[in-house]
Amino acid sequence: MFAILFLLVFLVFDGRNAAEQDASAERMREMERYQKVREEICEVCHLLYDRGYVVSNDGNVSVRVEPDKVLITPSGVGKGRMEPDMLVLCDLEGNILDGDRYPSSESKMHLMLYRERSDVMSVVHAHPPMATAFAICRRSLKERYLAEMVVGLGEIPVTEFAMLSTDEVPESVRPFAQDHNAVLLANHGALAWGPSLLSAFDRLETVEQTAKVFYYVERIGGGVEITQEQADILRSKVGMYAKLAGKRS
Ligand SMILES: [Zn+2]
Prior knowledge:
It is a single chain. By secondary structure, the protein is of the alpha+beta class. It has one domain (32-239): 3-Layer(aba) Sandwich (L-fuculose-1-phosphate Aldolase), CATH 3.40.225. The chain is built from nine helices and seven strands; from the N terminus they run H-H-E-E-E-E-H-E-H-H-H-E-E-H-H-H. It has helices at residues 2-33, 35-50, 107-116, 129-136, 147-151, 168-173, 197-220, 228-235, 238-244; strands at residues 60-66, 69-72, 88-91, 96-98, 122-126, 182-185, 189-194. The protein has a seven-stranded antiparallel β-sheet, with helices on both faces. Helix 4 (129-136) packs across helix 7. The protein is elongated and about 90 Å long. Zinc ion binds at residues 58, 106, 125, 127, 188-189. Residues 58, 106, 125, 127, 188-189 line the site of zinc ion.
């Protein structure tokens, strides 16, 4: 009788142990599959912190690793201290597929952009001081002040104010998802998206740099916009600049 009981307990325990081992092995495979992307996300997180675009637990970064899967930074971890195994794997509805932390509390705005734009592969959000000041003043960054903006990022609008961590945040960004690559989040910060992690980071950095230039323009007494005709000529050169950005064949 005791022998049978012992055998049953052993089998149940052994079965549970095998299931735990399977889950652990699957997690290891998930980790290894996206290891390079995890490391790249951490590099960008460290850059955001080193350049003063975030402090404490500010900001969030995500990368689409498969058409319907996204790696995103967790809630409550300083970007300067981000490590690859802290990232969370989610589907586009926000269901957690892997990771032992909670995804960023602002993951909804990331996921909305991935659902709206199949070409978006990365989203970066931070609180760069000058861009955030413009977001607080609800002042968009006009396209026709800077020739580079006309051929690059375009105008950077300001969203409606949205309560943090609610559906209001993705809804405030949605009107700009198709025709823009970055926005200022009213009374909050900056958000950029793009076809790669580095392009999204570069765009966010450009938003901050542009905000600094615009600040100086206003301090000096106001700038002069380029004309619509000049802007149209600049736009006609976009293809040429894209070609020059590649390797010579
Ligand atoms: Zn934020």
